[in-house]
Amino acid sequence: MIRKVLYIFLCCGFAVSLSSQVVDYPVDLELLKGADVTNYSPINTEGLEFSPTFYNDGIIYVASRPRTKKKKNKEQQFTFDLKYYDLKNGSKVKDFYEKDINDLHHFGPCAFNPIGKEIFYSENYTDKKGADGRYHMKLIRAVYQNDDWEVIDDFPFNSHEYSIFHPAISKDGMTMIFASNMPGGYGKMDLYSISKTGNSWGLPVNLGPEVNSVSNDWFPTFHENDYIFYSSDSQGGLGGLDIFVCKYIEGEWRFPQNLDSPVNSKKDDIGFALSADASYGFFSSNRAGGVGEDDIYKFELTQPLVFDDLQNFTLAQEEKEVVEVITEEVKPAAIVKSNFQYLVLDNNSKSAIRDAEINFTPMLSQEQMSDKDFKEKNLVKDRKTGKLKWLSSPNPTLLASKESTRSDVSGKANINLQQGQLYLVEVIKDGYNSDRSIIDVDELMNQAAIFINLNKREIIAPSNAKPVAVVNTADNTGTNSSTAKNSDESNPTLKIPDSIGDLLVFENVLYDYNEATIRKGGTKELQELADYMKKYPQLEVELSSHTDAIGSALYNLNLSQKRAEVAKQFLVDQGIAPYRIVAKGYGELVIRNHCVEGVICTDDEHAYNRRTELKITKK
Fold this sequence. Notes:
This protein is mainly β. It has three domains: 26-312, Neuraminidase (6 Propeller), CATH 2.120.10; 337-454, Immunoglobulin-like; 469-618, CATH 3.30.1330.60. The strands form eleven sheets. Strands 11, 12, 13, 14 and 15 form a five-stranded antiparallel beta sheet that branches.
């Protein structure tokens, strides 16, 4: 790819100052052309054996076993299990069955992390099918402890709507590559990476279009920390699935190379495993001449495979020099948007949530975006939640340009986001707690999908409250009388303040995010206030609206005033005279906790400041 870029620039007459270095591929594959490849007969059967992995003194691989008997005109069904063969002693093939993981319906290729004594594997869902009517695969982690494998957890991005399988783990245990047909990929099956931070794994990042094709790219395996072998049926191969190798360079997986013959054939070649000294290894193939449908093959080299570290090659410098030469002749680039896919899931069941509302609002002006240090100075990550927190005031004009979409039956929603921009995103669904976060588009590039896991809203049963005692001001006597009715038809829960100047916080007057419209079901307390004001026509009130300190002070002030006016209009529509209600927006002027502008707070702490209040001004 780099050679092609250089050729184009040179032919166009650009005076590009590049080093004279030739771009070398990551691996010297000439040694593989002389490899001795043999069918590894000690383990092959008439069935399928594939995806070998080195483990202790032997290899573990996937093998099929019949689940049904052969019948005429009916396809035989199989289950896939793990087998172990000791290379050192040449012992009989064993079942790699452990108490906690031997009941799998399908056990696919696995990966071992010797540092953490972990195994990563995939199993198929059995409780629910996806929208396509299929049972998909999910990624599982198990840890060896107390002389047994114990399943610890699965991963938050697992879903009934797509498959995740074929895990590969780096030597240091900090990076995992797997295959998936999750939304947002380049082809049918793509390769993704996740990185480990502390004891948790991050979200999937697509390896990008240089590795992933429009076809299938899967069956990855690691060599050391920076090389992966994988199989692809993209164009230009020998036929079927071919094995490729690529290297991790400056934050990207680059320069895929076809291993060519004799490792690759006109059939499917998958599951490449290279020994630690790079002198021999195994792979699987359904090429002609095998014992069964898919067999495991061993290859031996006359000398170890050479991996070029490419220390003399710095792609970033070359690209930078090219840009410096040509940007003088190029007009300023137009706004570039990239398509991202949101996937909204139930946090407990991992099932898709349809018809979830997704609101996304830009936060940066063009001037702020052009300042390369602006985000670094004003954006920090909350240590507790991992979410981004904003320390500055977003542009109020941009905040008013919210866009919205909704998730489909598979929980998916496509969103076009501007590169270099920050967005404030809120995901809303009836019956669930809303999710509110800031996203940096630059950090999402090559990410497969943005996963949002919503928690169901806890429903608290109402207590059997006693009738509310309020002041009867209609007769000007100042005596108390019970005006609340404890009946099925009317059971008010709003306790009106007793004295002028006292405040009452409405707990359930809820507005759509960044909007001055009350959500469905959020007017009950206002209706009770309207009924009370009808009963006591001398009563006058102030309705005040307050926001959090996220966003500009001016924008928050305007938004709160609009919300207060909406609450007032609701009372007017119920027959209350307008002069009896004062609508007042305070914006972020009256913060109830420490979360003033510039202070990093949790979502719950910010939410504590978003409220509507009632104050009695005349009785």
